[in-house]
From TrEMBL:
<dbReference type="Pfam" id="PF00903">
    <property type="entry name" value="Glyoxalase"/>
</dbReference>
<dbReference type="InterPro" id="IPR037523">
    <property type="entry name" value="VOC_core"/>
</dbReference>
<dbReference type="InterPro" id="IPR029068">
    <property type="entry name" value="Glyas_Bleomycin-R_OHBP_Dase"/>
</dbReference>
<dbReference type="InterPro" id="IPR004360">
    <property type="entry name" value="Glyas_Fos-R_dOase_dom"/>
</dbReference>
<feature type="domain" description="VOC">
    <location>
        <begin position="7"/>
        <end position="133"/>
    </location>
</feature>
<protein>
    <recommendedName>
        <fullName>VOC domain-containing protein</fullName>
    </recommendedName>
</protein>
Length: 142
């Protein structure tokens, strides 16, 4: 693989209700849809493929860990956006009255790995984190 070929990410996750999931990922987050059935829906998650599978007994289960004084869901997924994209998404989510697990804020301010972050759940209780780094070279800073 060449240096400028970035692999695309694929994630399948359980949901309790496909109609609510479609509404949230399409209408609130702005994800286009791909193939679907009565058991699953493909979403274009900023160029990556995420697939919501109907599995009510598995949806939204996660323990919590302490990170920077906040209870963070151990099981979550999301994206690292550009700072301006992150700000726009935070505003969009606030306007949609999304309930945040962790409100948008800047974590590790002034330290290596400084980042804007926010956590929220989809209608099935699956946790998502969206973040942005002031300096992308510090994504893996220690």
């Amino acid at each position: 693989m060449s240096d400028n070929e970035t692999p695309l990410f694929h994630l399948a996750f359980p949901v309790a209700n496909l109609d609510e999931t479609l509404s949230f990922y399409h209408d609130v987050l702005g994800c286009n849809t791909g193939r679907s059935s009565d058991q699953w829906i493909d979403f274009d998650f900023w160029g990556h493929q995420v697939v919501a599978h109907l599995s009510p007994d598995e949806a939204g289960k996660s323990s919590m860990n302490d990170v920077d004084g906040h209870a963070v869901p151990a099981k979550h997924f999301g994206l690292i956006l550009e700072w301006e994209q992150w700000e726009q998404l935070a505003e969009r989510l606030q306007e949609a009255d999304v309930d945040f697990i962790i409100e948008p804020y800047v974590r590790f301010e002034g330290e290596p790995g400084e980042q804007a972050t926010m956590f929220f759940t989809d209608p099935s209780g699956n946790a998502l984190e969206f973040k942005a780094f002031r300096n992308k070279e510090q994504i893996f800073a220690t």
